Amino acid sequence: MIRSKLPDVGTTIFTVMSRLAIEHKAINLGQGFPDFDPDPALCALVSKAMADGHNQYPYMPGVAPLREAIAAKAQSLYGRAYDPETEITVTSGATEALMATVLAAVGSGDEVVVIEPCYDSYLPAIRLAGGTAVPVPLRAPTSD
Fold it and tell me: Is residue 112 within 8 Å of residue 106, measured between CB atoms?
């Protein structure tokens, strides 16, 4: 039997919303389940790339042309220059990126300020890293 390091994580809001969307035959806006097929041209390009041998694990931070394109986009949109070799890493999704960041930056006994409500992976990631979440509720500004 496998014992989880996070036995009390429970069901995520994404699981709940996906179940409700199926139950009510609604479009699921919670997780990016499109209600359309990808463009056939995109499927053809992906198939060609795979047939051409682009089907192996990439360099750990992501393929260089993609990281370079991300750096160029950040420069054009925000006027910020990032080194694609040392400052850009491509992940397979937000949860992976957040988990990697928290595990790299949070040490045992560290306190991490978390604005609530928060993304459901923050608290388990902080706990897994040995940190303690310090929740700060998000409040609307009050008029004085």
Answer: yes
CA distance linking residue 42 with residue 37, whole number of Å: 10
Across the chain, the runs of DSSP E, i.e. the strands, are 111-116, 132-137
Q: What is the pTM of this model?
A: 0.69
Helix (H) or strand (E) holding 97: helix 94-105
Per-residue pLDDT of the chain (144 residues; tens, 9 = 90+): 888 887 677 777 788 888 998 999 988 877 777 778 999 999 999 999 999 998 888 888 999 999 999 999 999 999 999 999 999 999 988 889 999 999 999 999 999 999 998 888 899 999 999 999 999 998 877 776
- Distance of alpha carbon 93 from alpha carbon 65, whole angstroms: 18
